[in-house]
Amino acid sequence: MKTLKSIIGKTRRDRVRNKEVRDQCEIIDINKFVKGRKKEWNNHVTRMRDDRVAKIARIMKSLGRRGIGRPQQRWKDGLQSTSSESPG
Fold first, then answer.
1. Where is this region: Disordered (predicted)?
2. Alpha carbons 3 and 81: distance in angstroms, whole number
3. Can you tell me whether residue 58 is helix, strand or coil?
4. pTM (2 decimals)?
5. How far apart are the first and last CA of the chain?
6. How far apart (Å, rounded) are the C-alpha atoms in residues 55 and 48?
7. Are 9 and 24 in contact (CB under 8 A)?
């Protein structure tokens, strides 16, 4: 953001929001980009034949136990939280 602000001639003292800086520089938010790509990949895997490794891996459940402590995020968990968020 520091570089982008210097490109448009603003400093931190100008108190310009990051969204405004991204809009002026015509740069998309990286989080929105990643969520969109994740949805695209999920749709791509959904269209695959059932014998493809990527589709089998997405559907398959692990047989072992998860470790103690806070559970690690799974790819599928992130996709579900992405699809439940409202567009913004």
1. 64-88
2. 31
3. helix
4. 0.60
5. 20
6. 7
7. no
